[in-house]
Amino acid sequence: MSGMTGAEAMARTLIGGGVEVCFANPGTSEMHFVAALDRLPALRGVLCLFEGVATGAADGYGRMARRPATTLLHLGPGLANGVANLHNARRAGTPIVNLVGDHALGHKPLDSLLESDIDALAGTVSAWLRRSSTVDGLGTDVAAAVAASLAPGGTGPDRTGTSGAIATLVVPADLSWSAPARLAPPEPVAAPAAPSPVELDPVAAVLRSGEPVALLLDGTALSGPGLRAAGRIARATGARLLSRNWPARQRRGAGVPLTEPLAYRGEQITAQLTGVRHLVLAGAREPVTSFAYPGRTGRPTPAGTRIHALPADFLEALADEVAPGVTPVVARLDPPPLPPGELTAGNWAAVVGALLPEEAIVCDESITAGLTTLHTATASSPPHDVLGLTGLSIGQGLPVALGAAMACPDRPVVCLEADGSAMYTLQALWSHAREQLDITTVILNNRAYAILRGELDRVGAGAAAAGLADLSRPDLDFVSLATGLGVPATRAWTTEELARQFRHALSEPGPHLIEAMLLPGA
Amino acid sequence: MSGMTGAEAMARTLIGGGVEVCFANPGTSEMHFVAALDRLPALRGVLCLFEGVATGAADGYGRMARRPATTLLHLGPGLANGVANLHNARRAGTPIVNLVGDHALGHKPLDSLLESDIDALAGTVSAWLRRSSTVDGLGTDVAAAVAASLAPGGTGPDRTGTSGAIATLVVPADLSWSAPARLAPPEPVAAPAAPSPVELDPVAAVLRSGEPVALLLDGTALSGPGLRAAGRIARATGARLLSRNWPARQRRGAGVPLTEPLAYRGEQITAQLTGVRHLVLAGAREPVTSFAYPGRTGRPTPAGTRIHALPADFLEALADEVAPGVTPVVARLDPPPLPPGELTAGNWAAVVGALLPEEAIVCDESITAGLTTLHTATASSPPHDVLGLTGLSIGQGLPVALGAAMACPDRPVVCLEADGSAMYTLQALWSHAREQLDITTVILNNRAYAILRGELDRVGAGAAAAGLADLSRPDLDFVSLATGLGVPATRAWTTEELARQFRHALSEPGPHLIEAMLLPGA
Hints:
The structure is a homodimer. Chain A is α/β, with parallel strands linked by helices. The first copy, chain A, folds into 3 domains: 6-177, Thiamin diphosphate (ThDP)-binding fold, Pyr/PP domains (Rossmann fold), CATH 3.40.50; 201-322, TPP-binding domain (Rossmann fold); 348-517, Thiamin diphosphate (ThDP)-binding fold, Pyr/PP domains (Rossmann fold, 3-Layer(aba) Sandwich). Helix content of chain A is 35%, strand content 17%. The longest helix of chain A has 18 residues, at 75-92. Chain A is globular. At the A-B interface, helix 2, helix 4, helix 5, helix 7 and helix 16 of A face helix 2, helix 4, helix 5, helix 7 and helix 16 of B. Chains A, B: Keywords: Thiamine pyrophosphate.
């Protein structure tokens, strides 16, 4: 044990707990942990140029690996920079272990320049939060953090199922640099608690009633097995399959049962659910609108629709009961044809759908550009996974792509990014290049916060206000931006150009970026 | 009053309180405020592509205007993205009014996707925090926020003087869109409380004692009048003048008394203060180190040095007592000669010092690249103001430059940015271009988090760890990055190239960026 620091004890415990990657933007108070990474290659440090990249990458990693990455963040301001993407991760139910360095215990009362209330910040996004107080306890603390990240209890889609949680450990610098008397034995990571038994009969009765039923799927109900179970139920009973829009992770494409995504606006959801007598929430929450509007309800489920809840983990048992021996209807492999002409909000998605490679991981932050088109365009593409904008805090797509590619180095990652959202955490591209990851980013450049344009129209605002949703003056040039960050980039104005560039990007190793210029208003 | 929304009442009250600029990154819950801006051109909306740009710009604006700008932030995640630069602003004692939109009151219990604990986040950086609860109270709430931002009580350099504070008002969307029955009369903004009388005699006695005295200046003691008073005292009594490093705002250059900046490291500060019998803190706090290190003290003032406190506002009265009729020694106008050759960490600052225009505002986030050289190189340049990295949370320089230029459109702004720090909030360049501000940014590209390299050397880390402080692989190309954000950019490898490009940038209106390539290790 001689020469081991507390920081090294932490790193060894993380490795013992199955953690392999640390997305880091360290500072002085984390230098001993950085030094420990040097000695322990089993825990790989990935440098990020901004903390929101690190936390978003940990989200993408956790969604694909289904176990935590760790982040390494520098005091309160470093954590603050990562909070927005931790918010998204919290809504996704992603397991993450945040390590936040703090000042040495004796230094805190001095209120030195970087001192701030780390605990209050961490509390807003963490299901588990601890401040280490002894160097000998560091190993135990880290093991507890890993276990907590894998336990249910987050505020992700399925609070009762197997989704994970955000665990934050605040580590005073003096504990990191001190020598522990003993290394805490890596605690066995607790298996997620078995879900409590659920009474399936009422839901089964609803499904057999002959009345119109829809299943709304989220969480693990959107995994391959979950969707197959749902598909069996749908085929046997005629139930409709709805899915949460912008899911944490959804299996899609050829061989997978199709779902109909829940609409974005409340009035659209109400129309969508009109006539549905029973809405079964399989790992999902009751639909609520993202925002309130004057005179409109935030709970758009029609008054005549009865709501039933079913943990996603019981979907297969339910299928065995109501659809024994039934095979689900699945999407055929039948990608859309390449559309011709200038790129628009209406046709770009078909190019992606036509060329999407097998087992792609699609990180979808296309927002308005993809809201109504992407789902359809990729329904009959080869099988793939889609990772969505779970918490509506923009700036997660490029970091999530980084993490997903680290978790699945053998799968192609396709990142679909709206222009305004891309600008939040564009620094992620540099890490794409540094790690030479197979990520193809398509920037959907409509020169606007298009979603805000729609909102401004709703409130009747005029020209000057519309300027605050306008991203031209000056135009953003994503080819130059990507080049500056080390990612080869091209620009496409037509579907043919996008197709050629997309094929090329997928055929070459390493990251690429394509700026897709969408005709304004189209 | 017909047709007026709560949002418009807020905007009118801000205008009545002297607020002229709103640095905004709005979302759906802020659309009615955006619409109000449309009708009220006296409150100018400046769009920022990331909230950290908006809050940093409000910091720069407040430091120069000495009155608040307002920010417009979107719910908890939007505020979180702005927290790091609010941390810096808090340490600077800058007046800022944050308007944070929240969900409508009835919508909050639905826990919709963007719901989070705004109040906990805001509490970490706000001296004043209120959540509006009635539309008729909005005007009063906003007036109180403006007044609070101008009251002392922040944690800036001079807690007893005239520095401002961060006031955050959380505004539920339904209050913004509702119609108030009455418009609250704009409350008169309370004048900052007159400082309590201070007993000057003990400090005067110290200064007359003949024992070695140093004045450590911060806050308003670093203003032109404050420095002249300090200079009179120094000339009359032989006291040394020290200044906080990275001040919120310091007057410097020809005609201004010189100060010796406090060193960064504790052992350097101890050496600097050795032999000083009395340290008079004029608007300053006792020196503490930024970080703790094993076996070193965080309070580096030598044991034999007695500390005395004096609010900065009493510096002139003290000068009248101990230095009546005395004229201070001031810096002559004598810029350094242009150094020849390849650019290094040691010579770039002399180029800036040689060419700095009169009344420049120097936003200094050069960190290690400028720590030991910039102060000397610009000491005899034309008179100017320097705005420093007050809270050590990197990513404030480019946003602060945006705000300073908005506050002082007739003054040239020079932004000196380390490469790693620039990448935190690079989006600010786009707002530089959009507003066509006279900002010349010099990126000091040493391809490293150089400050971390130094820290890693201290802990004896090896090559892999050093990779986490390395910003090459791939090299950042700031010319491409600036071009992509609409700012004309050039690259300089030699002092001659930097001089030519710097002159050109200053001679043309609008923003420019120069990437200064510093020889590694030099």
